[in-house]
Design goal:
One of its GO terms (cellular component) is glycine cleavage complex. By secondary structure, this protein is α+β, with helices and mostly antiparallel strands. It has one domain (about 1-95): OB fold (Dihydrolipoamide Acetyltransferase, E2P) (Beta Barrel). The protein has helices at about 20-30, 75-80, 100, and strands at about 1-5, 5-10, 15-20, 30-35, 40-45, 50-55, 60, 65-70, 90-95. The strands form 2 sheets. The chain has a 6-stranded antiparallel sheet. Strands 4-6-7 form a 3-stranded antiparallel sheet, with no helix packed on it. The longest helix has 7 residues, at about 20-30. The radius of gyration is 13 Å and the shape is globular.
Length: about 100
């Protein structure tokens, strides 16, 4: 697992799972609204991964990798406060060049 820009990235069989670090959760406070990417969407590194509104801040997090969104955290899409939980994940990206992850 690697961390960059208040996100963690974990290689899995399905792809690269991306989530919020504890630091990001602390900085944001209780999350009240989230705009997720769409499953099937292709993201380039630096594209908007998720927009969050919370009690302490409104933040946009950029994708740390280029790839195709193959899953999103459906529970958090329905109830954004699920992103307040420890190890909360945002999305899984597939079709990522392994060297891109290695170079983070």
């Amino acid at each position: 697992m690697k961390q960059i820009d208040q996100l963690w990235i974990l290689p899995t069989e399905a792809g690269y799972k991306i989530g919020l670090t504890a630091e990001a959760q602390e900085d944001l406070g209780k999350i009240t609204f989230a705009t997720f990417p769409k499953v099937g969407q292709t993201l380039a590194k630096g594209d908007s991964l998720i927009e969050l509104e919370a009690e302490k801040a409104v933040s946009e997090f950029s994708s740390p990798l280029s790839g195709k969104v193959v899953a999103i955290n459906e529970a958090a899409d329905q109830e954004p406060s699920a992103l307040d939980e420890e190890n909360a994940w945002i999305a899984v990206l597939a079709d990522v060049e392994p060297t891109e992850f290695e170079n983070l």
